[in-house]
């Protein structure tokens, strides 16, 4: 369908469009393909039992020989989390900045994939040549250190990919975004821009990360006992600011939660955290110190059921017991879907007598994504000829298109695409030319892609009204009941209080079977369907519930 | 335990504390009990398959003879929704204002309970005597018309219950709250105040309902085609404003969604909606008109899966098909937990080419609850001696206690209570003296309270990893396998792709059974446990999943 045409550049998003997460974009020119980012998404509420979601990479597997590399913009899970799954099928060199690859290394080690992988560290301002592409890494600011945007120099022109970004004029421990290079690229001419849409609905500006540090200082000054701060493990700058405030007020710092310990170790080793000597202690030491000398940095800012903060709140943490006088700061805002988890943790912490500070009460969090005015700045500097809004649900892509139009862009040059959409660009034209396979691959335990709609539909059904199993053993010759019917139900009713209903169900099954015998119905499928139907009516009539009914007939 | 003490007033919350919803409070003096509000709550995410949650009224049933009446503050579901369930067990007279009882009537009719019920309409400023209580109804403003606060005059003093409220100086089609009576009560002396805590975390003031009308006017002025507005059915004032704007711009109005139709009918009959002649049409007529002459008011502002707006968005509505040019206004904000549903509907509407306006883009909604400055006004006017924050999770009750303290209240006079807490007051003292049974009763279909923790735990288990049933028929004498083992799985793996695993499982069961035979293990429970354990290990090893395993042994 899509024949190689040397004069055309293809851009094919495989994830991150019409969704939040699992970002992945394909850039293809002639016999060269590069993949930008390789992220995972967290399952929707309907994806019962699913651990995580990764992009469908059928297109890459079909074009195995063309794919030259994966290029990463930063180290968040929605940009690197699918790597272990993709690398098992496609062993590709991976390009990224130091911290990004430090986090990738950690992840690949866990999956036993590090030895075979090829990680190539690049620095902002550096350009690498991969096939006919020249990839230029450009510093941006985001809620993780070492984030970059990409200028992808291709034979048809320059493609600018913003990555995730915000405009922070006073970032922590790092430089501001490379505005001069953005301006220079814009002046020279950018053919296509792909730009982050996450916060497109928010007017104004995202505040600087530094403002959170000021809040920490104020809170630390007032706190008389222990301070516990929960935040995203990957937000090194936030962790740095907590450590800075702790140092300022003469407190030691202990780290809690596996991912927080991992990330702090990687960041420390690579020099992304500036940690005063002797300030870090472990939780056992922290318990021996006077509590007014202690800060604990922990995971669990989203109220995740197994996280360290949640375990502290429910008295299940082995080393940290919340006591009256503790100040707990939740330095994050809720990712949609997590509101109730967080609320529960806040309630539990309050009940234990802690003072809890969260984003509705104080400025303990800022977003990592650009709001409208920042996005306008980027559009204005880059002034691309064509524009593809990325990283967002349809509503965000649509609003981002609106914003681009309001800045004077021709609507014909804006493409609201979907995962799998093929966009083709020449030096002077751009259009959507087709689609390739793209979608969600569900990961459940060891299974990658083996849980499909039928399995999910069954889980949903079972979750709503439970299960009603009928087993009966029947003689092959006479077709009469030899044993049973036995009934087992789970998640339907409390059996001891429903003995009459169970008895009625058994009688109904007996009646149905003897009817089948009389009518000489002997096809199993028909008999099962009849049992299912009559039980379904009975149970719905008596309970207004629809459990999954499983008739099992053993023949001897 | 709690002997009647004539000198003491008991206040016992049975719902609405440490939760949002199912509001119900008991006031008891001597042989008289009155119940204020009788609401339902919507199930948490973990309450799989549950339809709704009502308060446990064991305490009322135990004191049946004392309970004299139910008094309602307003007609929202979280204040009246449990009535059909409670009235089946306790046939009590119900006091409320006209619109409140109009909605109650509607509800009782649906449940076939209207004929036997006794509804007594009261007006704001009216006082009714019930046993030793005098209940005074005082006008407030809220997101439903005809809301009242209560001054409960008791032998030990006046109890003030705010109900749900906000301070709206320019309410729609009604009077402002009765500030003068609040002030008078405060001047004369209020013993205890119970006050709404819903918006306690929000600084400042909630905007007037009227501001939404201004936004409607602006949006209606710009809209060139059809306008569809989704809002809460019970928000009569919002509906009034939509009709007013429609009238102003020469549009007809059609109503969609069962609860919207019901509420509009009740409100119209009782005179709570001022509807210009001939403006209301049905959906069929609306489809025949030029779309620039049409407004549709619909349910579905929370993206509820079966609601009218959701069906329109997914092309499943019989009479309304969304087309490019439609303006859809979602005049509501997300109730926590509904964010993703709403987002999905917004995305679908945008994809169909509609212009979608929601609360992040324009001022199309205001809350019905008071923010901090309004709550301070009420505290200042009422200046109660004792204070019980109500209607909120623990975090809200705690913040409300903070606010009361900041206004100069003695912390000893503030009670953060729980459902079931017994608070006793004399003319000069107040204290917590014990607890009574209180809690959540889950309603699932026809079952009220028959779904407990075991059933929910099973539903949860089934929802995560599905089900794995093993059936085998065994000879009673020889204990050898006669038929089977057969395996049925649902929601676990896609069976056709897992034939090897199923075969391996069958072999394992055969092996285990013959081992049992050899070892002369013949107790069914032991055999079943052995089968469960060996299968569980196998399945976890192969899939890292833990389906529910049900071994069924038939004996002949």
UniProtKB/TrEMBL annotation, chains A, B:
Its EC number is 3.1.-.-. It comes from the Bacteria. Keywords: Calcium, Cytoplasm, Endonuclease, Exonuclease, Hydrolase, Metal-binding, Nuclease, RNA-binding, rRNA processing, Zinc. It is an enzyme of class 3 (hydrolase). Zn(2+) 1 binds at residues 74, 76, 142, 391. Residues 21-216 form the Metallo-beta-lactamase domain. Ca(2+) binds at residues 49, 51, 444. GO terms for molecular function: 5'-3' RNA exonuclease activity; RNA binding; RNA endonuclease activity; zinc ion binding. PROSITE patterns: UPF0036. Substrate binds at residues 233-235, 365-369. The keyword Cytoplasm applies. Zn(2+) 2 binds at residues 78-79, 164. Its cofactor is Ca(2+); Zn(2+). It is found in: Cytoplasm. The keyword Phosphoprotein does not apply. Binds 1 Ca(2+) cation per subunit. Seen in 1 crystal structure, it is not clear if it is physiologically important. Binds 2 Zn(2+) ions per subunit. It is not clear if Zn(2+) or Mg(2+) is physiologically important. One of its GO terms (biological process) is rRNA processing. GO terms for cellular component: cytoplasm. It holds the Pfam family RNase_J_b_CASP. The active site is at 196 (proton donor), 369 (proton acceptor). Homodimer, may be a subunit of the RNA degradosome. Belongs to the metallo-beta-lactamase superfamily. RNA-metabolizing metallo-beta-lactamase-like family. Bacterial RNase J subfamily. An RNase that has 5'-3' exonuclease and possibly endonuclease activity. Involved in maturation of rRNA and in some organisms also mRNA maturation and/or decay. This is Ribonuclease J.
């Amino acid at each position: 369908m899509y024949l190689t045409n040397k004069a055309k550049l293809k851009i094919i998003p495989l994830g991150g469009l019409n969704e939040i997460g699992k970002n992945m974009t394909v850039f293809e020119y002639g016999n060269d393909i590069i993949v930008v980012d390789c992220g995972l998404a967290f399952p929707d509420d309907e994806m019962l039992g699913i651990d995580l979601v990764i992009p469908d990479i059928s297109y890459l597997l079909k074009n195995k020989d063309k794919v030259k590399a994966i290029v990463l913009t930063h180290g968040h899970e929605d940009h690197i989390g699918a790597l272990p799954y993709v690398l098992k099928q496609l062993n590709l060199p991976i390009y990224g900045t130091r911290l990004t690859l430090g986090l990738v290394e950690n992840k690949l080690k866990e999956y036993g994939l590090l030895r075979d992988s090829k990680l190539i560290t690049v620095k902002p301002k550096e350009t690498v040549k991969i096939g006919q592409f020249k990839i230029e890494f450009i510093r941006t600011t985001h809620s993780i250190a070492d984030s970059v945007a990409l200028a992808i120099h291709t034979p048809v022109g320059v493609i600018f990919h913003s990555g995730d970004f915000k405009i922070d004029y006073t970032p922590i421990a790092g430089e501001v975004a490379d505005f001069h290079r953005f301006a220079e690229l814009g002046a020279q001419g950018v053919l296509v821009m792909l730009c982050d849409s996450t916060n497109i609905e928010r007017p104004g500006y995202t505040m600087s990360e530094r403002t959170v540090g000021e809040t920490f200082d104020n809170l630390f000054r007032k706190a008389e006992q222990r301070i516990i701060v929960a935040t995203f493990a990957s937000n090194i700058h936030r962790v740095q600011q907590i450590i800075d405030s702790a140092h300022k007020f003469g407190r030691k710092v202990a780290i809690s939660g596996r991912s927080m310990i991992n990330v702090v170790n990687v960041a420390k080793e690579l020099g992304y955290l500036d940690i005063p000597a002797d300030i870090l202690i472990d939780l056992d030491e922290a318990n021996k110190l006077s509590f007014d000398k202690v800060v604990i940095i922990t995971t669990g800012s989203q109220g995740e059921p197994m996280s360290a903060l949640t375990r502290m709140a429910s008295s299940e943490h082995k080393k940290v017991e919340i006591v009256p006088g503790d100040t707990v700061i939740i330095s994050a805002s809720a990712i949609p879907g997590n509101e109730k988890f967080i609320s529960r943790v806040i309630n539990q912490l309050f009940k234990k007598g802690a003072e809890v500070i969260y984003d509705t009460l104080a400025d303990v969090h800022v977003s990592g994504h650009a709001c409208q005015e920042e996005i306008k700045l980027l559009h204005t500097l880059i002034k691309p000829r064509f524009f593809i809004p990325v990283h967002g649900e349809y509503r965000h892509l649509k609003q981002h298109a609106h914003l681009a139009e309001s800045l004077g862009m021709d609507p014909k040059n804006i493409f609201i695409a979907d995962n799998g959409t093929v966009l083709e660009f020449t030096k002077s034209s751009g259009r959507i030319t087709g689609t390739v396979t793209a979608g969600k691959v569900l990961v459940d335990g060891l299974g990658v892609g083996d849980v499909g709609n039928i399995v999910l539909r069954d889980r949903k059904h079972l979750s709503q009204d439970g299960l009603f199993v009928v087993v009966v053993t029947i003689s092959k010759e006479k077709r009469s009941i030899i044993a049973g019917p036995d009934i087992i139900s789970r998640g339907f009713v409390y059996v001891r209080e429903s003995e009459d209903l169970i008895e009625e169900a058994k009688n109904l099954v007996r009646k149905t079977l003897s009817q089948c015998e009389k009518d000489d119905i002997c096809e199993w499928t028909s008999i099962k369907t009849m049992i299912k139907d009559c039980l379904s009516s009975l149970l719905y009539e008596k309970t207004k519930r629809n459990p999954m009914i499983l008739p099992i007939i053993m023949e001897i």
